[in-house]
Write a structure and sequence with these properties.
Layout (H helix, E strand, L loop, with lengths): L1 H9 E2 L6 E4 L2 H14 L6 E8 L4 H12 L10 E3 L14 E6 L3 H22 L14
Parallel strand pairs: 3-4
Antiparallel strand pairs: 1-2, 2-5, 3-5
Helix pairs in contact: 1-4
């Protein structure tokens, strides 16, 4: 359930690929471990970085490769945000990494179904109609 909640909150939902972008290696490792456990134990991953113009791209790739165990050959083109866009001033030293499970269309569809299942059951809990509900008031 934690992996589904993590993907619901942080996962990419537009490309029909199972992928997640984050600035914290721990969150991406959790995503990768969850993918291996619940989708495909032999899954492989690609990574891409989003950096600011003044980030050291080679250093960032090396950081993420070491943290996630993704070979540098499996990194795709880096997006570098130019200076002067008026956005974020506290640049992340290693940027944001997007991890994509290769050949993951089926896993993506299954994950969205799991998210829908969670949403439906949350709606039932909030309306008092969950299976096993006793009808007693629940403190919020």
């Amino acid at each position: 359930a934690m992996g589904v909640a993590l993907y619901w909150a942080e996962g990419c939902k537009t490309n029909r690929r199972l992928e997640m972008a984050h600035s914290e290696p721990e969150a991406l490792r959790l995503f990768m471990d969850w993918t291996h456990r619940f989708h495909d134990s032999t899954a492989t991953f690609a990574a891409a970085l989003n950096l600011h113009f003044n980030n050291d791209e080679a250093r960032a790739r090396s950081f993420w490769s070491g943290e996630l165990g993704i070979n540098l050959n499996n990194f795709t083109k880096t997006f570098i945000k130019p200076d002067g866009t008026g956005h974020r001033k506290n640049h992340l030293a290693h940027g944001v990494c997007r991890v994509s499970m290769r050949r993951s269309t089926n896993a993506f569809v299954v994950t969205l179904a799991w998210i829908d299942f969670v949403k439906e059951n949350l709606a039932q809990v909030n309306s008092g109609g969950a299976a096993g509900a006793t009808g007693s008031a629940v403190d919020s």
